[in-house]
Amino acid sequence: MAVRRKLTRGLASALIPLIIGAALPRAVVAADDITPPVGTVTIGDGSGYASSLDLTVHAPATDDVGVVSMAIFVNGVPIGGRPYEPTITVSVSQESSWDIGVQWQDAAGNSSVGHAQVQVDVTPPHIGFLRFYEDTDLTDRLIPASIGNAWDDGSPVANVRFRTGSGAWGAPLPATTDNPMVIEWPAYDPAYGGAPTIGPRTVSVQVQNAAGWWSSSISELLNVSIPALSVSISADRRTGHPVTITPSFPSDLTFAPGMFCRWEFRWGTTAALDTTFSGDTFGGLLLDVPAASGGCGPWTFTLPWVPYRQFDVSVELGQFEADGATAFGPGARARFMAAVGTTERRILASNLPIAQVLPSTYTPIVGQPITYTRYLVGGASACCNARWVARLGDGENPKQWTQSGGATFTFTPSGPGELFVGWDRQATSGLLLAGYYDPPVRYRDTTAPNTTAPVARLGGGSLGSTIPVTLSWSGTDTGWGIGTYQLQQSINGGTWTSVALPSATSRTIARALNPGVTARYRVRAKDKAGNYGAWDYGPTFKAVIVSDSNGTLRYARTWSREADVAALGGSIHESTQSGASVTFTWGARDFAWVAERGPDRGKALVYIDGILAATVDLYAATAQPRRFVFTRHFATLGTHTIRIVGLGTTGRPRISFDGLAVIR
């Protein structure tokens, strides 16, 4: 062993000068040291990328007897030796991928090798373009920014940073691998270069490669708009009474100079409000009011009386941009119905400036002059290029009338069609104030509408102390169309009294009649021109309840009569036998079989005048007494025979007969 150790040391002594170029002083070491040094190699920050041709190589090593020298290799080629240092500088010739090797030697001549790779990149990255997917609002918090052609010859893009205007650059955000990359930027957070304001802003962006180089910046104009708002409406919603509309803005919203609120208040039918089709009563007013002067609400004003009292209010926050254009964010809208307090058509008070336009008639007629009047409320003025305009007809060449200024505007519609009439003015700031009305123009209508007689049918559900009856009718009009129906009733031959309908043009209504009374109904229509049609009379009829014990009923086979407090007459007939039947013959316009449904109830056949009409299943998960399980309507009063036959259904053979409801 001693000879082998001595020979090994002799070979090491001969090879070291070849590796490091010159013999280096050696300390006296223990003769039995055969352990090589232990070391690591790290280049720069250890990321694998470097931004300079001069590489900082960290090569610390340890050894029991001490590290005395080191040899350096670049891509496997030795470049010389030197005394041991834990950190050295190694220079390379160009941007490329390099492998740096280090061989350490201790005082006993033992050696070990380590290495590390690095991508050298001395060129900053480049950005082709910056684009925001869409304007943002204060509820988004993150804006997706598209950064295109962000590339680098030497290393990948690692980070992105933003700034607003001339502010400080924000904290870096990690880049994505998308091409173009898509970054979610917290546009309202100053820590990331954002700013908690709204309106147009210039946003700059830089990208950083993995070697640490930042690109030159590129900028884009971004409009930060208002958030999605909501509005609330005060509880008192009567015409002639004040109503308050209150928009809800985020607590961190700051109104910038040049911002304003645009309000639009409209009224009309649902079709008119949803599609901007004029309908019969579509109208409204429009106003822009600077936010600095309280234009963003709350807005309090008196509700006007209009022919159809459905109102729609919306508010948007606007911003004048540098090029004079106007940008709006998502607004808020609310719709409500108003009760009649007074019939005052004018808006008598408002805390915001408004212009209301009212027609002399809500039904313009061809060839008949019509006058519109403009009313200014809430400190509004008629300044700034005020004008009237009326347009008749759709398409490219509508008939048009105009007038500069004036509180009234009179013209004569020359034909039928959609008509828009409006007054507006603009202030020097571009703010708008307008009022408008949009009715259709028609030829005069002198033709009365027609109706059909109301038809009574038994209703559905269950039978209580009264009998449910449904009345239905229809109507036509060759002129302007039906505006309202009127329904009246006479009970036991008494005077005619009006029946309130669910809506003006309802053609069906549910009634509850007391058993045994006679009733008659009549209906007529009034068209939109004010013409009334003639009354159309339905037949006189009586609604009655027939209990299960009525003497006209004929039971066949086995039935049992059970006392039941939930039944019509306090009792009910039941059978479990297949073929058990009950038959009755009555003069009727309608009849309904009343029975109990339940989990043990089976099926039965219903015959009308000897012809099978239906198979009825009485099953239900829970007991349901007094249910209408089968109904039949006849066009005229006549005598009919009804026969109900049980089928003895397996597992649930029971059927019940509680009685009948009949219209005759």
Key traits:
flat, 10-stranded antiparallel beta sheet
Summarize the structure.
With 664 residues, this protein is mostly beta strands. The protein contains two helices and 53 strands.
Question: Any overview of this molecule?
Answer:
The chain contains 2 helices and 53 strands. It has 664 residues and is mostly beta strands. Residues 1-29 have low confidence and may be disordered. A hairpin with an 8-residue loop joins strand 42 and strand 43. It is flat and about 130 Å long. Helix content is 4%, strand content 49%. The longest helix has 19 residues, at 2-20. Strands 39, 40, 42, 43, 44, 45, 48, 49, 50, 51 and 53 form an 11-stranded antiparallel β-sheet that branches.
DSSP summary, beta strand count: 53
Low-confidence stretches at least 5 residues in length (pLDDT < 50)? Answer: 1-29
Please state roughly what percent of the residues sit in beta strands, choosing from under 5%, 5-15%, 15-25%, 25-35%, 35-45% or over 45%.
over 45%
Gap between N and C termini: 130 Å
Helix segment count?
2
Q: What does the radius of gyration come to?
A: 46 Å
Mean pLDDT: 86
